[in-house]
Each structure stands twice: as structure tokens, then as C-alpha cells.
Design a protein that fits this description.
The chain is α+β, with helices and mostly antiparallel strands. The chain contains 15 helices and 18 strands.
Length: 426
């Protein structure tokens, strides 16, 4: 038999691959037996159906229902090019069963160059899809999984279309309470603004992003997430959804915060240590607009060695703790209080001019001089302090510059009789 004598239609009729031929207006002109079997239709039911017929129900590989504009035949007609190896599901509305197929759609052109027909072929791959129950894995994963649409980035934000059980367990929200809402319902004023900006920028540009973010549960309990967001494309390559895989790292963040606190705090007094003071002071100095409205003071306990030698180090520790507590009582939370080393303390008075700052420090010095510290067994001691003050008077000054000047003022206070306050003079 010559090849010219072979009937192509007979071959197509016996293929294990479904074949549909659509017109340029999407109506089905031909369906081979395998296509009818996969679609669950008779020939009479299939022929003449267009892409807008309500009977069709297809889903993409992410289980999202496709609109008729995203059907293979519609995409070929719109883009005027072939689609190859597109994974999609054919839904049987009567049984809720999905048949997964690998689909190709190829245009056929008329002599005038217009698309005359579209040949759509599809191979049943359901057996490979059911081998591993991915949907069940996602639903029961320990990590939080959330999917939003990609259409409403601005305004109220992207809409949630799916959450798994881990999301509900962590946030306290039921699925029906969040579907259609935006993930922004999980954020509060304390959620970092820069983090939110970076996430929005990635979504707008349809790019993946990883961030650590502070969110809040339905009952306003804060929690930290290590979040990985990535775009999901439909079969035409358009980003239609974003998936977020999120891990609860609250305990890790709290542990890191505790270690950071330990590294920057003096264990005896609870004030900042030298490292913590310099870190926060530099940060404050970098963000401060008017540096003439701040100053640094160094405070030193007079004759502290005599206290340790006469009464013991426990008594010395009580004196240090007493002074630290009085600093907390007399100065603002915004002021940086530090045990600078040994019996020396430092204060960064933010937004205080030299007159106001000296008045506050003098009041503190007098309060210390008029106080007695209980050292146990019915005994008490009185201590005095010497104070040196230096002002931030130009934008080029560093914290180290001001500390040196405050130390010179402190040295003068100690050399002129102690129990006094001296302002550094140029």
C-alpha cells in the first residue's frame, strides 16, 4: 500500500489521544472517539459547541477554574501561535471528577493567511497526577500556605482565594472568614512599613520575594513569619495568582531578641551597656534633624572604691542598682540610659537644650546627694555623683566626639570638689 492510500481520518479515529478540530469561531467541527470518551460527551453533544458554552469546565494546574478566554482554542486564536504541553483538568460536573490532560493546540491557516481551524489534542495523564496527592499534602502541611489573586494589588490589596488548615490554626480565622479578604487583615501599625513596601513592589512586578514579617491573629496575638511568595502562571504564561509558603518563626525571633537584649544590656542594672549605648546613640544621631537639641552626660559615683573597700562589693552593687533605678525614675523613656563601665554612667538626652538638660541633671545629682541607700542589717550609706555634660552642637560631631568632651567636663567636676555638674566649654 502506498502512503497516499492511507486514510488519515482512520488513524485519528483509533488514536489513544483525544483530537478536536475547532472552527475560527471556536465551534467543535470534529471530535475523535477518544476525545469524546475523555470529555464524557456523545458526538451530538460535542459538535457545534463553542468555547462560551456553559457546559465546559476546565481548570489549570493550580485547580483554578479557567475562563473561556483562557481555553486552549481561545488562546491560539488570540495569540495566533501554538500552545504545547499545557497541563489542565477537564471537570465532570455530575461527579466532580477531574481528568488531567496534557494538551497541544495548533492553528491551521487558510491560503489567505487567516486561521481557519484549530486542532486541539490531549493525552490523559490522570494516572500520573493521582500517584502523589499534592492537594492533600498542601492542605495538611505544617507550614502556612496562602494563595491570592494577582489582579488587585492596589486598593484593598490582593484577595485570598485559598488557605490551608495550618493558616487557620495559626491565625484563628476560619477559611470562610478570609476567602475574598486581603492578607492585610493580618497586619497592624507595628508591621514594618518597609517590609510591606518591598512585598508590594514584588507583587506589582510579579516577582518572587522572601521576607520576615510581623502579623497578628484574629485575637491580636502577634507572630512572626518567614514568608516566601512566588507567582503562579496560567497556561498562557500570565501571572494569575501568588502563593505564599509561610513558617512560624516567633520563638526563633523572640530568642534572637533575648540574645540581642543580653548583648546590649548590663546584667546588674538592666541599663544599656556600652555597646548598646553606642549602637542606639549612633542610630538616633543619624535620624535626628536638629542636633543642637541634644546632649550627652557622663555620671561618676564619687569615692566608689571606698564603698567597695569599706562595705564590700555587694554594697557597691546596691549603690549601682539604686542609681540606675533613680535614673529611670527621673528621665524619660526616650533618653538613652547606660552603665558605661564600673561606677560610670552615660545619658543621651534627646531633644533637650543645655539649660533644660543641666537643670534635670542637677536635680538628679541633688536627689542622689540627699538619698540614703539601705545596705542591710539596719545600715545605710549616702553617695554623691559628679556629672560632665557636652552638647551636640554641629551635624559633623560623632558620639565619640561628644563623649570625649563630656569626659573632660566630668574630670573638671571631680577636680573641683566632686558632687557637682560641669558643662563642657569650648
Amino acid at each position: 500500500m502506498e502512503i497516499e492510500e492511507i486514510d488519515p481520518l482512520q488513524i485519528i479515529e483509533t488514536l489513544q489521544e483525544g483530537v478536536l478540530v475547532h472552527s475560527a469561531t471556536t465551534q467543535v467541527l470534529y471530535a475523535n472517539p477518544r476525545a469524546l470518551e475523555i470529555l464524557g460527551l456523545t458526538e451530538d453533544q460535542a459538535l457545534g459547541k463553542g468555547s462560551t458554552d456553559p457546559h465546559w469546565c476546565f481548570i489549570d494546574k493550580h485547580h483554578q477554574v479557567l475562563s473561556h478566554q483562557d481555553f486552549p482554542v481561545s488562546l491560539v486564536l488570540a495569540k495566533k501561535c501554538s500552545l504545547l504541553n499545557i497541563e489542565m483538568g477537564i471537570c465532570d460536573r455530575s461527579t466532580d471528577q477531574v481528568t488531567w490532560v496534557l494538551c497541544n493546540a495548533i492553528p491551521q491557516y487558510s491560503p489567505s493567511g487567516e486561521i481557519a481551524n484549530v486542532v486541539v489534542s490531549f493525552l490523559d495523564i490522570s494516572s500520573t497526577k493521582t500517584g502523589i496527592p499534592f492537594e492533600a499534602i498542601v492542605a495538611n502541611a505544617n507550614d502556612v500556605i496562602l494563595v491570592t489573586d494577582a489582579k488587585t494589588i492596589d486598593g484593598i490589596g490582593p484577595r485570598i482565594v485559598y488557605v490551608n488548615q495550618a493558616f487557620c490554626d495559626l491565625t484563628g480565622y476560619a477559611k470562610q472568614e478570609v476567602i475574598g479578604k486581603t492578607p492585610r487583615i493580618l497586619q497592624r501599625e507595628t508591621t514594618n512599613i518597609e517590609t510591606k513596601k518591598r512585598i508590594r513592589e514584588a507583587l506589582v512586578n510579579k516577582l518572587p520575594i522572601s521576607e520576615k514579617i510581623l502579623n497578628y491573629s484574629k485575637t491580636d496575638i502577634p507572630y512572626w513569619l518567614d514568608m516566601n511568595i512566588f507567582p503562579l502562571e496560567n497556561m498562557s504564561g500570565e501571572v494569575t495568582y501568588f502563593a505564599a509558603v509561610e513558617r512560624n518563626i516567633t520563638s526563633q525571633v523572640e530568642k534572637e531578641a533575648m540574645l540581642q537584649e543580653m548583648a546590649t544590656r548590663d546584667l546588674l542594672t538592666g541599663l544599656l551597656n556600652r555597646r548598646g549605648f553606642f549602637d542606639l546613640a549612633r542610630r538616633q544621631l543619624g535620624s535626628q534633624v536638629d542636633k543642637n537639641e541634644s546632649l550627652i552626660a557622663l555620671i561618676d559615683i564619687d569615692y566608689f572604691k571606698n564603698i567597695n573597700d569599706s562595705f564590700g562589693h555587694d554594697c557597691g552593687d546596691k549603690a549601682l542598682v539604686y542609681l540606675a533605678n533613680l535614673l529611670r525614675l527621673m528621665f524619660r523613656e526616650s533618653d538613652l540610659l547606660c552603665r558605661f563601665g564600673g561606677e560610670e554612667f552615660a545619658i543621651f538626652l534627646i531633644g533637650a537644650d543645655i539649660t533644660e538638660g543641666k537643670r534635670k541633671l542637677e536635680a538628679f545629682r541633688q536627689k542622689m546627694a540627699n538619698s540614703t541607700i539601705d545596705i542591710g542589717d539596719g545600715n545605710s550609706i549616702a553617695i554623691t555623683v559628679s556629672i560632665g555634660i557636652a552638647q551636640l552642637h554641629c551635624s559633623s560631631m560623632s558620639i565619640e566626639d561628644v563623649i570625649i568632651k563630656a569626659d573632660k567636663a566630668l574630670y573638671e567636676a571631680k577636680n573641683t570638689g566632686r558632687n557637682g555638674t560641669v558643662v563642657y566649654q569650648k
